[in-house]
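Now for one record.
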Amino acid sequence: MSHIKLGKYNQLEVVKEVDFGVYLNGDEDGEILLPKRYVPEGTKPGDILNVFIYLDMEERLVATTLQPYVQVGEFACLQVAWVNQFGAFLDWGLMKDLFVPFREQKMKMQKGKRYVVHVHLDEESYRIVASAKVEHYLSTEKPEFQPGQEVNVMVWQRTDLGYKVIVENQFSGMLFHNEVFQPLEAGMHLSAFVKQVRPDGKIDLELQKAGARKVDDFSEVLLQYIKDNDGFTPLNDKADAEVIYQTFGVSKKTFKKAVGDLYKKRLVVLEEGGIRLV
């Protein structure tokens, strides 16, 4: 069994220098070339380098210090660099583009367009490939998340209900339209909060913390904002929801609750033209 993790980062020792780069110790996989253009200055035999391993045009293992946009086992939104009779090739930040066979495309991929894909090793050819059939690579296990838990999500696709997202690079989740107060696009990475894990294992999410904690947290943010702006903000509960979101990243409902909270604590006064610090 090879200890080299293909399509991932590996810590490998430099064993010898040659005119065109250095060779790294790949144990049973033999010596792996790191071409000269990627060799950090001052590198010498015995040094340990953190390198990404993939296959060159001749299907040989090769190392790079470039950072690809995605590793094997991950999802990403990538742009199509070119298309031929075998499939599409995506720009993933390396010299050799990432192959998506036709059978792994949901619709025929077009040059210049971006698609959410999963990157994995093809079992037959042992090549690194991508698939747009994302749902095949999401976990079917029920996640252990708790309501209110913060998670990382990547926007996958828009639906009538809201936005399908990939949660923690593993699970399927949904942000409903009424929970979204900002424009979202496929490939965007966000922090979200778990509302509930449904019996089918799918996760309902929101972009803000639920309930009172959210208002308490935002009350402090709003108070600090007013202090930082000479004790006054022209934004009040009549302000446009979009303006409130662009300024603070919260819904108008959360904003109004926080204003009420500060007013009750007699920290601010409400004026015709805005909110002033007491």
